[in-house]
């Protein structure tokens, strides 16, 4: 069941990050991948900043932030 939550959080975070970063949607599977990688990036950044939390909403916020960072990096690579 935890794996399904992991995928759901990844999908929601990737979709939200795609909405924030206009024109960066990758479809459902792409959004899940972006959200999962974004969750890892966001968790790493949150750990380095010393901020933490626990609930589902907090996990989504951290994953969206990380996914947004990932989409920013992807946009820089696409421009090059």
TrEMBL record:
Keywords: Cell membrane, Membrane, Transmembrane, Transmembrane helix. The chain crosses the membrane at residues 28-47, 56-77. It is a multi-pass membrane protein. It comes from the Bacteria. The keyword Glycosyltransferase does not apply. Belongs to the UPF0410 family. This is GlsB/YeaQ/YmgE family stress response membrane protein. It comes from Flavobacterium shii.
